[in-house]
């Protein structure tokens, strides 16, 4: 998915597709497995948790503990109702739990202890619990909604006083999901994604403008799956890895599909064909997901290439480029319903009500936070796209990077 060096704006981790939604076989079939939160690869700061604990202790409990209503008649704070007090207690407990798990994981890493299996899962769930509890609190006490935060999260879902906790969260994930030593990086990772997406789209019969859209959408997927970090691991899954967070069987499927069109692509783009030969020789018999080029190529071929011919209709139905990227990300999360919606002739109004599919969405930070969101039993695809607000910043940065690449080509 995606998110670069010291950028701290993202809140969606790779690996979200897998967390506890269904048995492995079902997840592999439905592709509801890989992504949700803030992978930011800035170097860890020593004593970060102690600093966070001190900052939060000085800010949050004092402010939250004095929470109350102000009566417009006399200007005096009003007492909380029992349900409001319960929401406040639940939120305070969720913050303490999140801080505790952050501190525990940081201590394990700094002391070079062996981490538990899926070390990011507890962090991810604790973060979600904190955000959910805050949304319940702001639903109960709307005056608790505070200032905007640097992550672009709607203020009703996130207290900006907790920004240091999320910074530490992303630092820990950057350590736990660092690429393995055997990974083969590219010096042009963003351009590679655009080149591959564009070439595959041309091989599928798209004109130049729509093939360009395919390249932009492909770059959006790279940011959505890894925040733009190539070859990364996954602290929440033992199945998914690499630049587009695929499983082994998905990568193998992509290899077979690529072999079927490689000659066509090499005929109109010999340079790309030569690059592919070079990367194939480089990775040899190793896991193709450990090479940025082959990982992206195989992932696009496995899950998305067959939908590229529909891009002209998709662009017409969803003129917003961010919505287009969200649609293709939904192919990662809930492929079958998304394809059905595309084939319905009215994508935005197509409604899903299957509890399992709604569960896959929640497992990927859609309708996840707070009782009101989690109570939804159905949703249209327009509602789903709007609820994917944690992806907005990633896709906006993918769009910006794509524009840079496009400008360099013209230059």
Fill in the keyword field for this structure:
411 residues, two-stranded antiparallel ribbon, 2% strand, globular, 17 helices
Describe the structure.
58% of the residues lie in helices and 2% in strands. With 411 residues, the chain is an all-alpha fold. The protein has a two-stranded antiparallel ribbon.
Which word captures the global form?
globular
Helix content: 55-70%
What average pLDDT do the residues reach?
Answer: 86
Q: Radius of gyration, rounded?
A: 22 Å
How many DSSP helices? Answer: 17
What strand line-up does the widest sheet have? 1-2
Give the biggest beta sheet.
2 strands, antiparallel
**DSSP strand tally:** 4
Distance between the termini: 29 Å
Strand/helix succession? HHEEHHHHHHHHHHHEHHEHH
Approximately what portion of the residues adopt beta-strand conformation?
under 5%
* Helical/strand content category: mainly alpha
Uncertain ranges: 1-16, 18-75
Secondary-structure blueprint:
Elements: H1 24-30, H2 48-65, E1 69-70, E2 77-78, H3 82-110, H4 119-140, H5 163-176, H6 189-203, H7 208-226, H8 248-268, H9 270-283, H10 292-303, H11 311-317, H12 321-333, H13 335-343, E3 351-352, H14 355-362, H15 371-374, E4 379-380, H16 381-387, H17 392-410
Antiparallel strand pairs: 1-2, 3-4
Helix pairs in contact: 2-3, 3-4, 3-5, 4-5, 6-7, 6-10, 7-12, 7-17, 8-9, 8-10, 12-13, 12-17
């Amino acid at each position: 998915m995606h998110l670069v060096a010291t950028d701290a704006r993202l809140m969606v981790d790779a690996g979200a597709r897998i967390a506890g939604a269904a048995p492995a076989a079902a997840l592999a079939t439905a592709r509801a497995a890989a992504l949700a939160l803030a992978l930011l690869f800035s170097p860890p700061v020593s004593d970060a948790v102690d600093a966070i604990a001190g900052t939060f202790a000085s800010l949050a409990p004092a402010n939250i503990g004095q929470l109350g209503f102000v009566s417009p008649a006399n200007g005096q704070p009003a007492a909380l109702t029992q349900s409001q007090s319960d929401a406040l207690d639940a939120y305070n407990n969720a913050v303490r739990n999140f801080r505790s798990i952050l501190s525990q994981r940081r201590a394990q890493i700094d002391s070079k202890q062996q981490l538990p299996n899926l070390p990011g899962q507890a962090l991810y769930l604790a973060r979600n619990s904190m955000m959910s509890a805050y949304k319940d609190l702001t639903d109960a006490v709307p005056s608790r909604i505070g200032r905007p935060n640097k992550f672009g999260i709607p203020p009703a879902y996130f207290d900006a006083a907790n920004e240091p906790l999320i910074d530490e969260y992303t630092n820990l994930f950057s350590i736990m999901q660092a690429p393995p030593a055997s990974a083969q990086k590219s010096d042009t990772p963003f351009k590679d994604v655009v080149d591959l997406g564009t070439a595959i789209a041309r091989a599928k019969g798209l004109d130049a403008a729509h093939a360009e859209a395919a390249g932009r959408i492909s770059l959006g997927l790279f940011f959505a799956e890894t925040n733009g970090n190539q070859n990364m691991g996954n602290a929440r899954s033992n199945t998914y890895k690499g630049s587009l967070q695929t499983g082994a069987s998905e990568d193998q499927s992509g290899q077979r599909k690529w072999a079927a069109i490689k000659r066509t692509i090499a005929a109109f783009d010999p340079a790309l064909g030569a690059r592919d030969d070079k990367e194939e020789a480089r990775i040899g018999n190793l896991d193709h997901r450990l090479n940025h080029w082959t990982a992206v190529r195989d992932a696009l071929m496995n899950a998305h290439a067959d939908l590229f011919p529909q891009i002209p209709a998709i662009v017409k139905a969803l003129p917003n480029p961010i919505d287009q990227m969200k649609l293709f990300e939904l192919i990662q999360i809930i492929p079958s319903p998304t394809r059905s919606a595309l084939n319905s002739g009215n994508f935005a109004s197509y409604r899903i009500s299957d509890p399992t599919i709604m569960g896959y969405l929640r497992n990927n930070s859609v309708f996840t936070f707070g009782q009101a969101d989690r109570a939804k039993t159905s949703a249209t695809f327009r509602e789903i796209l709007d609820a994917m607000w944690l992806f907005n910043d990633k896709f906006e940065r993918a769009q910006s990077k794509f524009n840079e690449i496009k400008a360099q080509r013209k230059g």
